[in-house]
Amino acid sequence: MRISPWFQLTNRFLKSYSQRRHRAVTSQAGQVEQLEDKIMLSADMAAFFDLESTGNGQLPYTVSYPEVDELVTDSGTVFFDPLVEVQTFDDVSMIPGDGSFWNDVEAYNLEEVFKLHSNPGSNHTIYLDFDGHTTSGTDWNTFAGMDTIVSPAYDFDDNPQAFSEEELIEIIKIWARVAEDFAPFNVNVTTELPQDIEDLRKVNTVEGEIDQRWGVRVVIGDDGMNTGAGGIAFLNSFNSELDIPVFAFNGQNQFGSNVAAMTVSHEVGHALGLTHDGTSDLEYYRGHGNGATSWGPIMGAPFTTQVTQWSKGEYFDASNQQDDLTLITTNNGFGYYPDDYGDTFGSSFELIALGDTEPAEDLHGIIGRTEDTDFFRFWAGQGEIDFSVDVPSLGGGEPSMSNLDVLVGLYDQNGILLELFNNSGAVGTSFIYDLPASGLYYLQVTGVGFGVPQADPPTGYTDYGSLGNYRIRARVQPLDDTIVQIGDAVASEHEGTISFNVGINFAQQDDVLLQISTVDGTALAGRDYEAKTQTIRIPAGQTRAETTFDVSLINDLIAEPTETFTLVVQQVLAGDVDRFDDIGTGTILDNDDPLSLYLDIDKTSVREDAGPRAAKATVSRNGDLRDPLTVQLLNSDDSELYVPKTLTFPVGVDTIEVDIETVNDGAIDGTQAGITLTAVSQGYFSTPDSITVVDDDRSNYRTLGGHLYEPITPYGDYLVLLDIHVDEDRVLEIRGSNSVSTALKFAPGTGLYIEGAVLADASETRTITFRDQTERDNEVPPWAGIFYSAEGQQPTAFDNVSVTDAINGFTVYGTDTPDFLVTNSTVSGHVENGFVVTARNGDNIGEDEVKILNNLIYGNGEHGVLVSSFNTEFNISRSAPTIEGNTIHGHRQGAGVFLMANTSIVEITPEKAESIVAPRIFANDIQNNKTGIEGVSVRVLNDQNYTIVAPIAHNNLIANNTGNGIDLKVTTPLGLINADIINNTVVENGGIGLYHSNSVGDSFSVRNNIFAHNNGGGIVASGPFTPRIESIMRNLVWENGGNNWVNYPAQFGTMTELNVNRTPSDPEKNISGDPHFVNDGSFKIMPDSIAKNAGTRSDDDSQFGGYEGVEAPRIDFFGNARDFLRDIGYHEVSEGGFPFSEDFNDGAAQFFVPTNPNDWTVDLQGGNYSYLANTVGTGNVAVSVFGFNQLPQDFDISVEMTAVTGPNRWYDGFIVFDYKSPTDFKYAGMFTGQNQWVVGHYQGQFGQRYVNVDWDNSGRKINADQKYL
Predict the structure, then answer these.
(1) Can you give the C-alpha Rg of the chain in angstroms?
(2) What is the pLDDT of residues 29-49, one digit of tens each?
(3) Do 214 and 124 share a structural domain?
(4) Is 226 left (phi over 0), alpha (psi -120 to 50) or beta?
């Protein structure tokens, strides 16, 4: 990167101070106030739900991207962000949709513009500074080379001395928009200058105490440094000990608040440690989509989208997978905003009380985390309910901007889902629903995604950043049943009594008598409280009992967790009551200890090989059990012990038991004493416990198992006693050695399970072996094998390993984003399959994601490689690994490669499910199996579903299998669509060469193959079959038992034409004859084979294209480049390289391709064959092209050329080079009539000549019918 002198920086660090330029504020009343006189105002989002916006319209924006977007300086990394100019209008009414905004201006309290706080109780601040700022003594001054940087105030009316009403409104809108971006976090977005400037600086100590309060200033105004950017920020400056602002220059226009706010949040994101979200070719991703669900990442440039969110790169071609939410909440001193509503039915908030028809007031909430869900309960009578769950409308004359897209679930009193609601094309949700019965119901609110953002082109967004404020409005039918209601009660045990209110929702004409009793829960009668049964009277005309139901508590001295018991109505003794199933919960708070978490381990020491249940930890809590509690388990040495990272106590639960698992690391590392486990949660004291792990490894005995991530070093035999787990975000390295072979010997039933990554690299070293502990017999079960199910992890690679004698060698399953490679390895002796690659219910396994390359796969009980796709849901599952260069032998009960697609959905709906198996099967040696390549499809009847087996099989040798060479028993309609069988040699199989279904689809292609000496037939369709023209072509089919062609039209195998190499062929250029294999059993063809030059040309004409444009292979089985005219079969006979000559004595010019075949013939001239141009007339040019795949850097071309006499023709001839088209090429040769030798450039005429030798000048003559070299 070239840096101009202005960017040359020094390494000065100075203490920061700020000097504010106070700006007068013009209020609606025209009065001026000083900012210091303001008092704190906590502003909620309630005023921002109903303001009208421009809907799908967009203001005209001009976006200029900086020449330098990121600069690493001595002071830190500086980001330069796009400059956005918003076109403004003199007439406000020109902007669509703003009509009611000005009528709602009272929603904005202009007297409080500089007192706005989104979360005034937070210790961390994002201060929006609108009234100008002077920056000095900071890294910015060093950066800019300026002692003071004067940033003018926010101003778009050219009156910098006072804020107009329009400017104040825009400031409120900017604040609201930024506050919505940061609503999920425990941080305060404010327009009020902190009373203590230290609230913007993080220092190590404040009067001897750790600093708990800091933040960042956002200077919003014109660019005082003349950077030309729309905003600038230092990376990670939020945690600076100086008051280092970030700067937002964009959006100083009326109706520019969206652009300004977007810039503010983006620059604060940099200060919090975030970098740009872009694509492979764009630094800033601008977003995608239209209207209310158009989307872009905050750390991109989403100035024209209406949904902006924090991101972790979950969109097509994303360049940055940085987890914004995690970085924001873990690196900056603050976390998420506390959850405002319960996330279970039991912790739900009462939205509509019994007997009411609507909430007492509008309810506002926040979806604060990706997994956050808020539950509400309401009572309703049978009939229609009307709900709306809205998100803030933050447009106000501009397009509405939002972060949250709402999904609403409606449940009955038993927790059964009745329906989900998510309005199409909108982020808020409203619905009308007809309740089938009166009673208690639940409403669930959560954030949701939309579309398929990782598709090409992308649509929508995931639920990752679907966070923010919402409002609920509702109306229901009143519930008119008479219901007994028992209130919950809470008391500390030292209070002696806990009292419950009892009532009914409707007063009755007569007294109601209820018999009520206590029932034990975690609190036990006689130990925690005194059991009681009592008759309660509710007088006629009243809804409350005349007395409370009082229960005596037992005040002990035992430290114990919070405990509960319940009250139930045993029976109604008198009165008219419809329902009495309500239960009251009594919660007894312990008064003996502060809030504490206790962890107790039941053993003091364990052996390393003790395994998954080596010991047990009991984690207990005290305090209020009315809320769930999630705690972290801290493990001082996770290389020796494994426990879950978190535990969650459900409501009412005070004790959880956790299994402690040892990690068999295979290392001689001695006894590890004092490994401590601690349960922690904010606000709780923790009591840890410790345990000792005794090493079981010795110099001649080492064991493995458990959750491993430390490297496995070279050693002779490791005994794997337990399953090995490689967890997400972990990498297990299994190291090779030049001197020591390493073996992992697995106990029966154990396996290696990969959710992170494994690197087992024995390349050019001694082999790493994965196998049984003992030789297996029928009574000892095998080990399970290696299982890979990682999503989006680092690459897993096995190189030069040996995997033997498991149930299956390798199994890849349950993953949509794998990165899995096995190369140069031996996979053999497994009970079932060598490899299993399975896509299930929406998985998409691509050819670059799973690769099986250059392995020896032999002697497995069923198949060498099984590739399957299984679907029981309405989506697309695709399994398309690459299987290349392998030797696959000796699967006598199955196939070398077995393909299976299965769609099992019974119900008939308009939705469609697809199961696709489409592996790349390239250059494999597939011999001595039951079947070479076999494919089957299964589909439960549903006409909407597709089950497709579409192998892309190139350059394979498929020979000596006892059954069919290629067997595609695909019975589903279009089941072979897009399958390509190209340049394979399929010979000497006991069954048919190629058997296929006759319902293949339009894109089934079989070309350039040899099918010879197969006992059951050559190419056989399952029934009468008429292929698409030029799809079954250029094959050599010879001496197959039964018949070469079965169920094909009669012209197949009937030689009526000539192949391009002049061999007799049928109309589809298929030939028949001895392929002339080399007599070494390799099935290579000899140079005189009729398969030579009988295949597709190297340019692979479009009509010969295959699945997704897959063309015939450019190299053969052995890695040799194929010639211009490709040979048939898996082997390409080399043309011999240079020098190369063609004398046409075989009567053919097979290496030449004429632009017009009618212009050229091979004729006998004077006892020799010549290649003759036969154009007639003086305006025609005959061109024939000879092509090599590769040419040396320097080469000579010579030709023996004769100008043949004849009527009405030119007597000229040329060597053509640098040929581009019939009207653009260079030439060297003779103009016989002009008696000239020339070199020139033909571009529609021969006038442009580089060399011109006229023999008239030397008295010589170029004669027709004479050979010239």
Answers:
(1) 40
(2) 222 222 222 222 233 444 444
(3) yes
(4) left
